[in-house]
Write a structure and sequence with these properties.
Layout lengths: L3 H11 L20 H14 L13 H5 L8 E5 L4 E3 L6 E8 L5 E7 L4 E6 L2 H7 L7 E2 L1 E2 L5 E7 L8 E7 H8 L9 E9 L4 E6 L4 H13 L8 H14 L2 H4 L6 H4 L19 E7 L5 H6 L1 H11 L4 E6 L2 H11 L6 H10 L4 E6 L6 H10 L7 E4 L16 H18 L4 H6 L2 E7 L8 H12 L5 E5 L9 H10 L4 E6 L6 H7 L8 H7 L5 E4 L8 H11 L10 E4 L2 E4 H6 L2 E3 L2 E4 L5 E8 L3 E3 L6 E3 L6 E11 L8 E12 L6 E4 L3 E4 L7 E3 L3 E4 L5 E5 L5 E3 L5 E3 L6 E11 L8 E11 L1
Parallel strand pairs: 2-11, 12-13, 12-14, 14-15, 16-17, 16-18, 18-19, 21-28, 30-37
Antiparallel strand pairs: 1-3, 3-4, 4-8, 5-6, 5-9, 7-8, 9-10, 10-11, 20-23, 22-26, 24-27, 25-26, 27-28, 29-32, 31-35, 33-36, 34-35, 36-37
């Protein structure tokens, strides 16, 4: 006897043929838990869903539809009519529903728009022809009251959201065939159907030959190889050509459609660094690689640029260790990136004498060991030194940490907090937020590095930061273990971020894919322990502090370039001060220097000199007023760690005119002259002028009775009445190039007696 849920499932299917049911079936109230009612419906189902001509072959019982082990909690899904797309107007599905069984299989029920097809065959047209005229092996439709046919198509779990081939058999053409008027093949029409249960959509279309798409998958599989051969580039080109030859519909049939179809950004923004003209000194930056274009430029490319900037006298080149990724980039984007052997061959051909190999790998793991093996055959042709990977030396226990690990921990946690909207880890912890950093993991003994990174986080006080790995090696870093630790600590918000140099396939898929039940995002979410789970898809290589760390690793083997910048503030003094002694100014500021600085006069006015050690400039004693400039060469000395650097800066000293130093005094308080009615009288030396600079001019205040000459001689006019007169003499010195114009006054009494 069917249970309640199965009964409801069958009611959904029966909705499509409801017009065929006798009215008496629905005249009474039928309760789902009423055994008699269920029996009635079962009987109706058995009678109505079987095509009249093929009752013996049409599945009609619960066992036939669901299988012997069918569960009672299967899911019923109605496909809205607006979600049904028919690309061929001659084949039109009007309504559809699906029963999803607990084992993932699906029974799809569809109602056609007419009665042109009485049978379907699941498979391709070629398979139907090979099967022959055997209606008992076909899927028979059932006409409803309107004469429209209803079909039930069984689908496996693997066929959901994929194109499934089937054949619709034209009733008219089939009858003609049986009458000897046509061929059996003429009655067969290749179709395909695609059911998406999550989105509740159904797509029908004409059958499409999968062979071209399958061929593309085969070509992709061929180039997904870690071994480079003489045909690798041609194989990549063949795969791309085959993909480009497909129609858009055919591309949907390619299993590995994302290989060419997924947009990962503009490949032209990334420099493959595979040019010749290297010179004698080369820095080879070796990375595993990523096919995600934007992230490759933002991580590996950024690291390479930082190294190139720091070592301008070295040629920086790139090599990837993952041939699979190299092939992917070339096949999809037409860009060739050297593998390690190709990069070394290029170096030999270019006459490189010394090569520094900087791996961007996280640790001294398997890839680092393989790199060392690849370099070995070339060490008799080039002097090759290999610097540390990002996290430096491994150490022996989980307690062994180093400066590199500490710096990376600080950088990635700061970035994660900033991206999550927190000031720092403490603020995130206060808000109940955990930061989970997902590394790759490895079976190599160096996997202890991940436990060391957890030790670093703990020592830095980042109690809400957890280290995990995709591979779950070491075991303490597997996803389930990390989830348990985060949940046990009581955090309700989780931010996932890769502990990887690049944010490529692992970050986008293993960590952040919401459609993958095994992604970390899905696994954290599925527990129901957290209010929110968010992903930050950014690689370590995007962080400036991490880029700088690679730069410093290279510095262990090569002196780093210094970029110094010198500026000078304008200096000034006045002539009078300078007339007494030379003046010195601390005018030059130098930034960026890593080593001892020295200074030298390069060109300009000789009145300026510079101290070779401290860079202070001096303007010579007695220098006339004016503006003086000179170029000073600034040199940062070369050391074992840094190359020498030079720059020039222009200094400017202005010698201003001094204030007029003139002193004006009256020689006597009172100057006496005798009254003379007819003759003028003169007074000489009434005013004494000293220290004057420039020509003098005089003025006297009482011009009614007195005047004064250019030489300062006062004239008392004839007939000036006897009296005492208070006068002021103003003396003006014109000044010169070193002194300004200035005036002085002397006040005294002229007594006419």
């Amino acid at each position: 006897m069917m249970k309640k849920t199965k009964f409801v499932a069958w009611l959904v299917i029966l909705a499509m043929v409801i017009t065929m049911l006798p009215a008496t079936v629905f005249a009474a109230d039928i309760e789902a838990d009423d055994p008699d009612a269920v029996s009635i419906v079962e009987d109706v189902v058995e009678e109505q869903v079987v095509a009249p001509e093929t009752k013996e072959v049409q599945p009609t019982t619960e066992e036939a539809v669901y299988g012997e082990e069918a569960a009672v909690d299967d899911t019923i899904i109605i496909i809205p009519s607006e979600n049904i797309t028919n690309r061929n107007r001659m084949f039109k599905v009007e309504t559809a529903s699906a029963v999803e069984n607990t084992d993932g299989t699906v029974l799809l029920t569809i109602q056609m728009s007419a009665a042109g097809y009485h049978y379907f065959f699941k498979g391709t047209k070629d398979e139907a022809i090979a099967n022959g005229d055997k209606p008992e092996t076909w899927i028979a439709g059932t006409p409803n009251a309107e004469g429209k046919y209803v079909f039930q198509l069984p689908l496996t779990a693997d066929e959901i959201d994929k194109y499934v081939s089937f054949v619709s058999i034209s009733n008219t053409k089939y009858e003609e065939y049986k009458e000897g008027k046509g061929s059996f093949a003429a009655a067969l029409y290749g179709r395909r159907i695609r059911l998406n249960l999550d989105e509740k959509t159904l797509l029908t279309d004409d059958w499409l030959d999968p062979a071209p798409a399958q061929h593309v998958d085969e070509l992709i599989a061929k180039i997904q190889s870690q071994k480079f051969t003489s045909t690798t580039w041609a194989d990549c080109e063949a795969a791309k050509a085959a993909w480009d030859a497909l129609s858009e519909d055919e591309k949907e049939l390619v299993e590995e459609a994302d290989y060419f179809g997924l947009d990962t950004g503009d490949a032209s923004k990334d420099d493959p660094l595979n040019a010749d003209g290297i010179g004698e000194n080369e820095i080879l930056v070796v990375s595993f690689g990523t096919s995600f274009n934007d992230n490759r430029a933002a991580t590996i490319g950024a690291i390479e640029k930082a190294i190139a900037k720091a070592y301008p006298n070295w040629s920086v080149r790139r090599a990837f260790t993952a041939q699979i990724i190299i092939n992917h980039i070339y096949a999809r984007d037409g860009i060739k990136i050297d593998n390690v052997e190709q990069a070394l061959d290029r170096a030999v051909a270019n006459g490189v004498k010394k090569m520094i190999v900087q791996p961007t790998h996280l640790m001294h793991g398997e890839e680092y060991d393989e790199l060392q093996e690849a370099l070995a055959p070339y060490k008799d042709q080039i002097v090759i030194v290999v610097t540390e990977p990002l996290l430096g030396e491994v150490g022996e226990t989980a307690a062994d940490v180093n400066t590199d690990k500490i710096e990376v921990a600080k950088a990635v946690v700061a970035a994660a907090c900033a991206d999550a909207g927190y000031k720092d880890a403490a603020a995130a912890e206060a808000d109940g937020a955990a930061i989970v950093l997902m590394g790759h993991g490895t079976a190599h003994p160096a996997n202890i590095t991940y436990e060391q990174m957890q030790t670093v986080m703990n020592k830095l006080g980042y109690g809400n930061v957890f280290i995990g790995t995709v591979e779950g090696l070491p075991e303490s870093t597997e996803c389930e273990a990390v989830i348990a630790r985060v949940a046990a600590a009581g955090y309700k918000k989780v931010f996932l971020r890769p502990l990887m140099v690049v944010a490529g396939d692992h970050a986008n898929n293993d960590m952040a894919d919401p459609d993958d039940d095994e992604s970390w995002y899905s696994m954290f979410t599925a527990t129901g322990n957290f209010d929110s789970v968010e992903c930050q898809i950014k690689g370590l290589g995007e962080l400036k502090d991490v880029q700088d760390l690679y730069v410093y690793h290279v510095n262990e083997e090569a002196p780093m370039a210094q970029t110094i910048k010198a500026t000078a503030k304008a200096s000034s003094t006045d002539y009078a001060t300078l007339a007494k002694k030379a003046q010195t100014f601390d005018a030059i500021t130098v930034k960026g220097a890593k080593t001892t600085l020295s200074y030298a006069f390069a060109s300009g006015d000789k009145e300026i000199s510079v101290n070779a050690k401290n860079g202070k400039i001096t303007i010579a004693k007695g220098t006339n007023a004016g503006t003086y400039t000179a170029k000073i060469k600034v040199t940062a000395a070369a050391t074992e760690k840094y190359e020498a650097a030079e720059t020039t800066v222009t200094v400017k000293v202005t010698v201003k005119q001094s204030k007029q130093p003139m002193v004006v005094k009256a020689t006597k308080k009172t100057q006496a002259v005798k009254y003379n009615k007819t003759k003028k009288q003169t007074i000489k030396n009434a005013v004494k002028v000293t220290k004057n600079q420039g020509t003098l001019t005089y003025k006297i205040s009482n011009t009614k009775y007195f005047s004064i000459s250019k030489k300062g001689v006062i004239t008392v006019k004839a007939g000036t009445p006897k009296n005492s007169y208070k006068v002021t003499v103003t003396v003006t010195a014109k000044g010169n190039k070193n002194y300004k114009k200035g005036s002085g006054k002397a006040t005294f009494t002229i007594k006419v007696k």
